[in-house]
Amino acid sequence: MRKIDISVLKDNVIDLIGKQWMLITAGNIDHYNMMTASWGTIGFLWGKPVACVVIRPQRYTLEFVEEEECFTLSFFNEQYRSALKLCGTKSGKEIDKAKAAGITPFEPSRGCVAFKEARLIFKCRKLYCDQLRENSFIDKSILETWYPSRDLHKIFIGEIEEVWEE
């Protein structure tokens, strides 16, 4: 993998997140967890390139993202779709998801964990977090469609500090 400047990124971020999916990972090489996500954004805010991710309260990964200063977003080629499906349906409390998915954790930068098989990795330093609130939804149909159990996501905005690509 080689380090690149985010400004030269060629990927369509809507496709990257919404169709190709990503792993959100936090922790250290000895104790981490990851989850598959297909919701999030990449953009520019507060004079910085940022990534925004959302995590439901029941996800084990939430504990790790809350505790750590950084999280990573790892994007994979299509051949890893089944690994991403596994990481989105199994809990890291119950199994070693990396081993079961056949992916290899490593530290691309001090204080973060990502996966050697990823084709693209973002290291994000947390800048902001908040809990989505029912009364803040203007379009109430979103609540009924996406939150029938009212398990609203926690939102994290992180500065994209480093980017690696294969």
TrEMBL record:
It comes from the Bacteria. Residues 20-165 form the Flavin reductase like domain. GO terms for molecular function: FMN binding; oxidoreductase activity, acting on the CH-NH group of donors, NAD or NADP as acceptor. Belongs to the flavoredoxin family. PANTHER family: FLAVOREDOXIN-RELATED-RELATED, HYPOTHETICAL CYTOSOLIC PROTEIN. This is Flavin reductase like protein.
